[in-house]
Amino acid sequence: MKKRVLFTIATIALISIPTLEAEELADYVGFIPAGPAITADDVTAAQKMWGDAVVAIGEAGDGAPALAEEAARTAYAFDLGPIQFKPTLASEDPFREDIEGAISYFVSGNEKYTEDKGFALKPWSKVRFDNHTVKFHGNIAIAMGHYFFTGPDGTETKVEYTKGYVKTPDERVLIFLQDSSLPYS
For residues 26 and 20, what is the distance between their CA atoms, to the nearest angstrom? Predict the structure, then answer.
């Protein structure tokens, strides 16, 4: 009897919650399409492409902003709606769901994001991924681990990450989730 009462109370509570209109969610929701199964090789290739792009942006000089935009459009799932991107060194505006915020983080220069210093402009000479775990579900993979950014003097900066990848129907592997942080000290 007690379980039935709790179930009834919970049901009434859920029913009484006002429904949200699609327009209210539009700025916050992106839909992940179905697609072919994603593989470990797909994730490794996407990670290599992302790391190579970070290095190339730092080497691009005046062409860095254009290269950062091209890399963002190629690596991230912006065409699917807002993504979940929490850059390593962002605290004033820690969540960047659109391409404008991502590009600013990588190369700076956007007045909306004054804290950005151009993370990819270091320049880095190498990016190395060390996956702790990768979970697969259909066309989605979630990877967690460390990546190491090698600076011009050869020292590595260790960063913790979680990245979500989706394999689209046209076989692209895109990042829809990225949460990066420096290790706790």
Answer: 11
Q: How far apart are CA 159 and CA 148, in angstroms?
A: 6
Q: How far apart are the first and last CA of the chain?
A: 51
pTM value is: 0.82
Torsion angles phi and psi, residue 40, rounded to 5: -60, -40
Helix (H, G, I), strand (E, B) or coil at 48: helix
Give the separation between CA 185 and CA 124, rounded to whole angstroms. 23
SS3 177: strand
Residue 59: pLDDT above 70? yes
SS percent in the chain: helix, strand, coil, step 5: 35, 25, 35
13-22, 69-78, 111-120, 131-140: least confidently modelled range = 13-22
Residues 100-136, buried b or exposed e (16+ Cβ, 10 A)?
A: ebbbbbbbbeeeebeebebbbbbbbeebebebeebeb
